[in-house]
Write a structure and sequence with these properties.
With 164 residues, the chain is of the alpha+beta class. Helices cover 36% and strands 41% of the residues. Strands 2-1-6-5-4-3 form a 6-stranded mixed β-sheet. A hairpin with a 2-residue loop joins strand 3 and strand 4.
């Protein structure tokens, strides 16, 4: 009887693991909707320094490039947040567009972030790009990069200028 229970328990674990292995990340519009929710959760977790949530959202090989150009791995960013070297106060997304390529989603937008860095209060306005990709059946943030916006943005670009 005991052997039968052990065999049944092992069979259940194998069955459950096989189901998890077959799990697939959403694609198309469903992936975009999932990423919009993940981005909202990421921003709240960064403000709250909720490391457990960020561990789940970030892929293990995640790269975070700050608007200063500082590039960090998942572990480096989480350590900085844990130590309080940087504290995010608020995220304001001014615009965001998400595009799905199968189960991979690329998001671009403009944001303002209030933060303190080494005790100094700052506001950063930047263009940003996020890339979410399927990792073991779930969408994870694999790359984040932001570029600072200049205080004065020219209204015309070279391609928009009219000949004199």
């Amino acid at each position: 009887m005991r052997i039968l229970r052990v065999v049944m328990a092992v069979a259940c674990v194998v069955f459950l693991c096989a189901g998890v292995a077959r799990a697939e990340a959403p694609a198309g519009d469903a992936a975009v909707a999932a990423v919009e929710e993940l981005e909202h959760a990421r921003q709240h977790a960064m403000v709250a320094a909720d490391i457990a949530t960020l561990v789940e959202i970030f892929a293990d090989d995640f790269t975070y490039v700050h608007s200063t150009g500082l590039a960090q791995s998942k572990d480096e960013l989480l350590a900085m947040l844990t130590r309080g070297d940087i504290q995010y106060i608020a995220f304001r997304t001014e615009s965001a567009v998400y595009r799905a390529y199968g189960s991979t989603v690329v998001g671009t937008g403009v944001q303002s972030i209030d933060l303190t860095s080494s005790g100094k209060a700052l506001t950063s306005r930047s263009r940003y790009t996020v890339v979410y990709a399927p990792v073991r059946g779930a969408l994870r943030l694999v790359s984040y990069q932001s570029t600072p916006m200049p205080e004065i943005v020219l209204q015309q670009t070279v391609g928009d200028r009219k000949a004199p």
